[in-house]
Design brief:
By secondary structure, this protein is α+β, with helices and mostly antiparallel strands. The protein has twelve helices and eight strands. Strands 3-1-8-5-6 form a five-stranded mixed β-sheet. Strands 2-4-7 form a three-stranded antiparallel β-sheet, with no helix packed on it. It is extended and about 115 Å long.
Amino acid sequence: MGRNGNTLPRQAPEIPRPGAGALRVILWLIFLGVIYVYGWQVTQINLGELGRKAYLIKPLATDLIRPDLIERRPRVQVADTGIGLDGAPPPAPLQAGGPGRITLSPATTRIGDPVGVSGEGFAPSRPVELIWFDQSGVKVKLGEGATDASGRFQAAVTVPNVIGTEHHIMVQVGLEGTTLGPSNALRLTLFRMVETVFLALMGTTMAVFLAVPLSFLGAKNLMARNPLGTLVYYAVRTIFNIARSIEPLILATVFAVWVGIGPFAGVMALGIHSIASLGKLYSEQIESIDPGPIEAITATGASMLQVVRYAVVPQIVPPFIAFTIYRWDINVRMSTVIGFVGGGGIGFLLMQYINLLQWKQAATAVWAITLVVAAMDYFSAVVREKVV
């Protein structure tokens, strides 16, 4: 309305210039085209190489569909005993209660030193093979010999240059005939796969116990009510962001140097990274809850702990459970990668097979990873469906 009550004339809408929208689209297409052309050159994409070098992948692809599952191997008597290095006590034998037993002299030694090995209770007049192996499954042949007419033998070996904390000397006495059974690759893979699942479970469990309390401190709707709470909120969120930015592969390398190669290093790496990831997910879930119950309980004069107990917790339990199970699923997959740097689990075994170009054995590990990850994904989906 004008000052005298008259209606002001309505301004005509601005008519876009012809071709302005089309020009803007063309400029964007040119910009994206330049980006992708440059990216194609930087990444050195050459689709022709896929066809010209297909013959290189054929042996690998053939072995991947023929995993090493069953083998016919000679019948043997097996016995082992632990050996301590650099003052460490020898571990317990893995083949306790076998047909024979072996003793070492000395039982604790150092790399490069000679060790006397004597055995008894084996088949008479049969070939003997002495093998060194550690907790990762790596085996090194030390020497050969033979049992006498009474099933005894004596030999001297030299401690190889090895790493790790748990070592054994194993004796294999060859018998007549062969037997059909699961391959050594399959048995090692199953053992390492179980270790991988529990490695991820322990890392996730450790993360949950620390991420849950930290998530309340990292929720803005709970903490940003006074200057001190705001400071705590930003400090916790900063810790989450820094810890999440460090890849588990790097953390596994650090812990492998710190605590030694093995699953404990993997548990710590997955645990530290999961604390930050779960803490962020948990805190964002807390920030997205319905504020009505919080305001109602706060109006009654309830303390902060009472507000959390009666207004926050009932709203976050189902999504917290879903996030936790999903993180366990992620950690199972991630643990196969951190094994490449000494974090234990199936990845450590897979790396050895790949380095030795043992593709059938590597295929066994790959298929085990695939099946377990698929089963974990199905399991986590079922649980999330029931709790959310």
